[in-house]
Amino acid sequence: MVNAQKKIKQTAGRDQLGDFAPKFAELNDDVLFGEVWSRTDKLGLRDRSMVTITALVSSGITDSSLTYHLQTAKKNGITRTEIAEILTQVGFYAGWPKAWAAFRLAKDVWAEESADTDGKAEFEREMIFPIGKPNDAFAQYFIGQSYLAPLSSEQVGIHNVTFEPRCRNNWHIHHASKGGGQILVCVAGTGWYQEWGKPARMLRPGDVVNIPAGVKHWHGATADSWFAHLAVEVPGEGASNEWLEAVSDKEYDKLQEEKR
Question: Which residue range or ranges hold the Carboxymuconolactone decarboxylase-like domain (predicted)?
Answer without folding.
Answer: 22-108
